[in-house]
Amino acid sequence: MDDPLALVIEDDHLLADTYAEALRAAGFAVEIARDGRTALARLTTLTPALIVLDMNLPFVPGMEILRRIRADARLAQSRIIVTTGDAQRAEALANDVDLVLVKPVSVTQLSELATRLRPPT
After folding, report:
1. So where are the chain's domains?
2. What pLDDT digit, counting tens, does each position of 74-102 carry?
3. Who's near 56: CB < 8 A, 6+ residues apart?
4. Is the pLDDT of residue 16 over 60?
5. What topology is assigned to 5-106 in CATH?
6. Which sign, positive or negative, has the C-alpha torsion 101, 102, 106, 108?
């Protein structure tokens, strides 16, 4: 069976690659979108099992992407991990997503948490 798909939406190249590494270690296939516009375009054709979403993105902010994900019935089963450097924003988002991680996020931390969110095979 194919690995479930994780979509990393992160504009920082190093962080995006680090998150991708952690998610692959957790058994996910990974695609990266490096800005909000690209993320929204990819979400019209993908149905990821897991989305790792940065809040501060070029072109379309993370909050708008989150709003659109939540409004799309096709993405209702997608689990969402938000990453942010803003602890107050993290607290405000806690009820809207599956997990909120305050940066910096370690590879081990993300891998372990993503494993818990991985759909059963």
Report:
1. 5-106
2. 999 999 999 988 878 777 887 889 998 88
3. 11, 62, 84, 85
4. yes
5. Rossmann fold (3.40.50)
6. negative
